[in-house]
Write a structure and sequence with these properties.
The structure is a homodimer. By secondary structure, chain A is α/β, with parallel strands linked by helices. Chain A folds into two domains: about 130 residues, NAD(P)-binding Rossmann-like Domain (Rossmann fold, 3-Layer(aba) Sandwich), CATH 3.40.50.720; about 180 residues, NAD(P)-binding Rossmann-like Domain (Rossmann fold, 3-Layer(aba) Sandwich), CATH 3.40.50. Helices cover about 30% and strands about 15% of the residues of chain A. Chain A has a seven-stranded parallel beta sheet. In chain A, β9, α9 and β10 form a beta-alpha-beta unit. In chain A, α5 packs across α7. Chain A is elongated and about 60 Å long. The two termini of chain A are about 25 Å apart. At the A-B interface, α5 and α6 of A face α5 and α6 of B.
Amino acid sequence: MRIHVQNPAGDAVFAITPEHWSAAVARNPEPGRLDVSFASDDAGFASAIRHAEVLLTTTKIVKERFPAGALPGLAPRLRVIACNSAGLDRLAPFDWLPREITLLNNRGTHAGKAGEFALMSLLMLASHIPHFATAQRAERWEPRFGSVLAGRTVCIVGLGTLGGAAAHHARAFGMRVLGVRASPAPHPDCDEVLATTSLDTILPRAEFLLLACPLTPATQGLIDRRRLGLLPPGAKVVNMARGAVWDQDAVCDALEAGHLAGCVTDVTVPEPLPSGHRLWRTPGLLVVPHVSSDDPNTYTDRTLDILLANLVAMRDGRPLPNRVDPDRGY
Amino acid sequence: MRIHVQNPAGDAVFAITPEHWSAAVARNPEPGRLDVSFASDDAGFASAIRHAEVLLTTTKIVKERFPAGALPGLAPRLRVIACNSAGLDRLAPFDWLPREITLLNNRGTHAGKAGEFALMSLLMLASHIPHFATAQRAERWEPRFGSVLAGRTVCIVGLGTLGGAAAHHARAFGMRVLGVRASPAPHPDCDEVLATTSLDTILPRAEFLLLACPLTPATQGLIDRRRLGLLPPGAKVVNMARGAVWDQDAVCDALEAGHLAGCVTDVTVPEPLPSGHRLWRTPGLLVVPHVSSDDPNTYTDRTLDILLANLVAMRDGRPLPNRVDPDRGY
């Protein structure tokens, strides 16, 4: 099987190297004979993609290289596109993707780091850290005392890798965890799970709201101005999903009005957030530049483990654990 | 036994009320008949202190009310001063205190909240949050990726309530925990414990350094410019002790020079930190206004439980768990 790895030019942190590959092959079951090539430039891509059966790369590169209709001519033998991201919303709509090509993400990679980031964000909001960061900008000493997490309620929207890891830590610290996802199947780290359609009934109980769902047509704008108004006064919000899942301006308004008491967001619209944007200056809002879930020490290794496991499953005719359904978007 | 509670005027968060007292007496063993009075003004203090055998109040009030030599005349029957703080450094030197009077602190009150604050600070430093707060002030999107805590090394100076709680959480997240305290007795949540006199040998291994010791003559200026230089490049520092435990200017210099990669401090010199102070603007340094360890929902209840347990021990002739040794300072 011919595999091509196309790295972004100039990314030293998440580049996938031949050393990563050798180590991954050594620690995983073999899915068969694998010929792998690596490139980070145009020429390397152009020559390798003509023969590649599997492409491992970033969503940004997929988006740039395969405008609608281009793929069959450029990559006649391609059967699998594996992205080193969990959220593939950048690739929607999926009109560029021939349906016989399997699209894989790397969900599962992010659990350790994302779980710690989620717990950190909850602890920061409980301790009023975004408020103190705002006060520090104005050089003002403004003590506010905060209680421990135990006994308080968090609503987690999305119970995939990120939301599940968040629920696990929140539960371990004694929080009451209310989960929300497309179908209300129980989750081992949630006290209750409700369907997204019941979101309105759960928001008034959410002292903390943590967003960890994929961005899809169903979640775009999910937390709008009206739903922010359903949160109890003084509620605190974490966004580890995508900026388009909430109404960003309404969040800023709610912080300025004091309806929300604090916010940590790892995602913004747009990214990178430009200088002069309102979000930088909204009181009680801490902007983190989209790094919540990526551990540079383990990210590439986990991504390759996941790819190899999926290739073994494909060889054996089993369902692929990381297949993305283009109709669903995740 | 006559007990007087002197509250600070105008503190609604930590005032001790008759309701707190009744609840505490109901849930604790009785140390004997107790007559309790409450005041927050001068007149209330003046009349009650003449008869009080136990005074429960803040270190600030003790400091103001009992200048050296004043106590015997003002409070002829006083046997116990109980402070609703763990650190009594504000009362040093203890020349104002007749040696027949027992001084109690409320150590033990802070474990839950302080442990969460310590863990939060370690997670924040691992995720470069102080750096992002600095970048936000300049409205700059500057991603830096950070790894999970597991496998990394933290050196915790002081293994009392705060340091012990910090060690517990750090260990639970897979960190290697090096403890430092006056005597190198083992600690259940530390991989190693060294005496403070061995601090120089441990600092080069401390990717994270967390200060949680009392401020005493032995710890004043402990983390000076030379010792900051012994930390590995890129080290991260948390101060939950007192600002005088480190050389604050040297910390700022080390952050500006990039030797330290980040800092969260709950304590400053002076407090409150005035506008215009260098600390507010030091890059990678987050200033928290001395709130790390006080949980407003449990603080007063725990303080009263501790006082009553000490009064029972006194009645029974047992050692008092919260007695402060003025020679040692804690």
